[in-house]
Amino acid sequence: PWDAGRFAMVGAIQDAARNHGRVLCARDERGGCASCADVDEDGSAGLGGGASGTRGALVAVKEMPTTWACGSPEAFSFAHPGEVERPWVDIGCLELLREAEFPYACRLIGVFSGEKR
Known about the structure:
Elements: E1 7-16, E2 21-28, E3 57-63, H1 66-69, H2 73-79, H3 87-99
Antiparallel strand pairs: 1-2, 2-3
C-alpha cells in the first residue's frame, strides 16, 4: 500500500495524459534508495550520486489510476489491446535492469497502490 508519510510531494514534473496520470517529484523521507541523488540543505538535488539509505533523496513518482493499469499484465493487455504504453512491461524492465546492476536506469523503489491510484 501507498505510504503517504514516506513520500513528501515537491512538485509536478509532467502530466502523463496517455494514462490519465502524472509524474511527480517527491522527497523520500525514509530513504533506502541506493541510486537516488543526494539532496542538499536547500532542497536541491546534489551531485553526490546518491548514498545507500539516503534520507530525503528526491525521487520520481509515476502516478496513474489503478483502473487504467488494471490488476495484472494480462488484464491490461485485454483491456487495452492497442495501447503502446505498457506499464507492467516498464516495471518488469526496470526490475530486470536492477537485478543486472545496470547503472544507467532509474532504480525501481516499489509499486504502490492507494485508494484511487
